[in-house]
Amino acid sequence: MPKTLVQLLLIVAGFAPGFAYDKYSTHIQNGIPNNLTVNTSPFIKIKESYYLFGQEKVNWYVAYESCRRYGSELVTFETPEEFDAIAAFLKARGDRSEHWTSGNDLGQTGTHNWFSNAQLVTIKRWAPNQPDNSGGKEHCIHLGYIYGHSTEIQLNDRPCNNHPNSLFKYICEAPKPETVSIVVWK
Ligand SMILES: [Ca+2]
Ligand SMILES: [Ca+2]
Questions:
Q1: How many domains does the chain have?
Q2: Domain membership of residue 90 as a residue range
């Protein structure tokens, strides 16, 4: 690159911060404004969060890895409202499948945490008499119509892997998006 051009670029770069201060303003906000057309596929917006419904039936570990491939994690329900929104969504679709969540008590049996944020599972959405760690083998939490007579989608603990009846679909939750807008004053 000719020496004069390099010097010119340095001068422009040197002036740029002062120039930008007057001519641009930036704004960062949580979420994606409704009037902004953004393709969030394969994630679907439900209430304030974005989810992917994995359709393969896999063990808990494979489910987690699948979510990580999309830069997301198995779903974590911080509030009962979030759980109810997902349950209503599945119900409206007539989807009676069972789905893995990020919850487990692999670290300490009997203490169920959401694996994505290490917070205790506090929502009261367990199926009756669950979690029961049946056979001493159930350490991962899924949701679905747990019993034949269940009319609500609820939580249950099941074997994380190595069990033919513990292969489920899964729900991934994307990180919370932020929208950065830059206004240019011409
Ligand atoms: Ca969540
Ligand atoms: Ca159970």
A1: 1
A2: 44-173
